[in-house]
Amino acid sequence: MPTYDYKCTSCGYTFEVFQKISDEPIGFCPKCNGKVKRLIGAGAGTIFKGSGFYQTDYKNKSNKPTEVKKTEGDKHSGDKDRK
To answer: What is the domain count for the chain?
Structure first.
């Protein structure tokens, strides 16, 4: 069942009501008994059930980063100047 947001046009009170889709909209404010308007909501978010989704679930195992190996030529140029 969805949750609907309402706002009173008289006192400005905002409240939520948990009701069926087939239920009639609320007509009066529970605080002042004034008229209410149903607000447009963002709707419910996506609900994921189960163990979850992880970034590693979709990684291609053959695309591992290659290891960079140092060679004798990769030493700092400053090492030659030191004596």
So the answer is: 1
